[in-house]
Every structure is written in structure tokens, then in C-alpha cells.
Design brief:
Blueprint (H helix, E strand, L loop, with lengths): L1 H20 L7 H15 L21
Length: 64
């Protein structure tokens, strides 16, 4: 829950900064979208959206 809220707040900050700066600052909308998606996955408690098997473990890539 803590990470999800943090990512959503960071996303909102990037959106606000992009709107205030305008022009080339609109490029900040891309990382804002990325942070929003990660935050939503954490808040929804769906670790599969982040490529994880469970909320506390990772898949092994060496085949063991």
C-alpha cells in the first residue's frame, strides 16, 4: 500500500510539473504514465502485472 501511494503521488507530481512547464516539459507525461501504472498494480495487489509470481518472490531466470 505504501509503495502504491508513493508511485501515484509521484505520477501526479510529474503531471503537474508537465502542465506547469509546458512545451518540452510535456515529455514528463511518459514517466508519469509509467509511475501511475506501477502504482495501480501495487494498489490492486496484482504482482503479476509487475512480472512477479507473488508479492515477495521473483522468478528465477537461471532455470533452477
Amino acid at each position: 500500500m505504501r509503495y502504491g501511494s508513493l508511485f501515484i503521488a509521484l505520477s501526479a507530481s510529474f503531471v503537474w510539473l508537465a502542465v506547469v512547464v509546458g512545451g518540452a516539459g510535456l515529455a514528463l507525461l511518459w514517466p508519469a504514465l509509467s509511475f501511475a501504472l506501477v502504482g495501480a498494480a501495487y494498489l490492486a495487489r496484482q504482482p503479476a502485472l509487475l512480472g512477479r509470481v507473488t508479492a515477495t518472490t521473483r522468478r528465477r531466470t537461471d532455470g533452477r
